Model the fold of this input.
Amino acid sequence: MDKNINDLKKYFNFDIFADIYDKTREISNSFQSIISLIFKKSGFKKGDRPIVLEVGIGTGMVISYLPNLRNLVPKYIGIDISKKMLKILQKKYKNSDLEMILADAYYLPFKKDKFDLSLMVRAVHILPRWKDAIREVKRCIKDNRLLVIITGGPGKKILNKCPSNDKYLELREKYGYPLFYYGADWAEIPEFIKNELNAQIEIFEGTYSVKKSLKKSLIEFEDQSMTWHTQVPKNIHDKIVQELKEFLLRLYGNLDIEEQQLGCFNIGFIKFNKSN
Ligand SMILES: C[S@@+](CC[C@H](N)C(=O)[O-])C[C@H]1O[C@@H](n2cnc3c(N)ncnc32)[C@H](O)[C@@H]1O
Done:
């Protein structure tokens, strides 16, 4: 299928998902320990005053795991291209020191060598020019400091594994609209970091298991709540959802159940040697 850039453009901007984002996006329950690991690996010591950049901060799901934000990181700057995502973030953090900037990941409005840590969480897979975005972070981060990239995948594993998602993927293939990444597939990232940027990457891959109400999942399908739902024209998407419902009804007997889902995440801890 052709990825028409004009069609895609409207989906890079999360304005259309902002109102439903927090209700429809889960984050793995192991995220708290991931955050601890990030701060451990960043090597910050008491008294350090690190400056942190989050690219594609969205509604602030990552910092919701940092209740001691002010003590831990006196200067946390989040950038995002979506006004509406930032508006929601602003409401949540109106009395905090969090700095939010409307900016494009490809043109970060910062001088070089400013940051002590940078995070890109669930962002690179929707950035078509993800390599340029990573190069831009490299420009803004200090020598030998951490960039942490967290994403799902590789390949179709960006969706949790369970009968509803497996069938959805099968139906997309049947209708000629296989799932694709707007940006990076995880499988491409380590090679890019090592071979093109000549940087080090340490990789953690993990899985998690969640139970999710099938009714809730079906509402998300019906409302085209996920970026990948919008890759398919609405009339075809509706047909897929109808067939999906019929399949799930045959499989489970009713739709009032909880489905066990297996999720997968990847973390890349990247260090640039800026003299390279
Ligand atoms: C899937 S959300 C992830 C938000 C948050 N990091 C999280 O894990 O919940 C991706 C975010 O990237 C932002 N984004 C997309 N393209 C961008 C760009 N070119 N520059 C900056 N942010 C962008 C979207 O607006 C959205 O808020």
Q: What stands out?
A: Residues 12, 14, 25, 56-58, 61-62, 79-82, 85, 104-106, 121-123, 126-127 surround S-adenosylmethionine (CB under 6 Å). Strands lie at 51-55, 75-80, 99-102, 115-121, 141-151, 200-213, 258-271. The longest strand covers residues 200-213. The chain has a mean pLDDT of 91.
